[in-house]
Amino acid sequence: MQILYLDSVDSTQKYLKELIKEKKVSLPYAVVSNTQTDGVGSRENSWTGLEGNLFLSFAISIKDLPKDLKLESASIYFSYILKETLEELHSKVWIKWPNDFYVNNKKIGGMITNIIQDCLVCGVGLNIENAPENFAKLDIQISRDNLLDLYFTNVEKRFLWKQVFSKYKLEFYRNQNFFTHNEDLRISLQDASLQDDGSVIINGMRIYSLR
After folding, report:
1. For residues 64 and 155, what is the distance between their CA atoms, to the nearest angstrom?
2. Of 11, 12, 37, 49, which sits most exposed with the smallest number of CB within 10 A?
3. 3-state SS, residue 24
4. Cis, peptide link before residue 98, omega less than 30° from 0
5. To 10 degrees, the CA torsion angle through 81, 82, 85, 90?
């Protein structure tokens, strides 16, 4: 994974997408910034860019993804690999379906995934050192660059979806007191039924994780 380090940017996601559109990079490729002024979160919400935190976007060619991975569940797949990377370092982080990182009952970050041309672009925001009001930060101390090294090493192992999902579904029960959003609707996950493709069925409605 080739990584471009920036001091400041409006959004690593927007920046990387432009590089891809202009055919200026070869994949896989990542962009990391020390600060971010206009980060994009789930449902196009902004993500506060406090210095010292992780602002990352990376792109992987669709042909290089695990053969059994449905693109609609890429958020779960790459989020869970990051969660396991942090867990190896003794963090208690867990994933609220489909793409939010939590410590106890407070959000510390999230991941969004988009498809552009023939590649998948993942954007990650993670509170490593600082947290805005009503959010939390990571429960372990680690440098951003060490975390990136460990994470991309795990990503490059190209675990099958079924390997990742078999572990993820064991922890899905933690979602029962939380909510998700679909088309601007706030929906309880209490009675959600997790499907093998990573989607959930709530009140007869199937919702996928691609954001």
Report:
1. 11
2. 37
3. coil
4. yes
5. -120
DSSP string, 151-200: HHHHHTT---HHHHHHHHGGGGGGGTT-EEEETTEEEE-TT-EE-TTS-E
Closest CA to 162 of 59, 38, 68: 68
8 A C-beta contact, residue 84 and residue 171: no
What are the structure tokens assigned to 68, written together?
């059994």
pTM: 0.92
Q: Write out the chain's pLDDT in tens, 211 residues.
A: 999 999 999 999 999 999 999 999 999 999 999 999 876 655 455 556 688 999 999 999 999 999 999 999 999 999 999 999 999 999 999 999 999 999 999 999 999 999 998 999 999 999 999 998 889 999 999 999 999 999 999 999 999 999 999 999 999 999 998 988 777 778 899 989 999 999 999 988 898 876 5
Where residue 168 falls (left for φ over 0; alpha for ψ -120 to 50; beta otherwise) is alpha
At the topology level, CATH places domain 2-174 in BirA Bifunctional Protein; domain 2 (3.30.930)
* Domains of the chain, residue spans: 2-174
Q: Give the residue carrying structure tokens 């999230």.
A: 110
Strand partners, 106: 103
**DSSP per-residue codes, 74-130:** HHHHHHHHHHHHHHHTT---EEETTTEEEETTEEEEEEEEEEETTEEEEEEEE-SS-
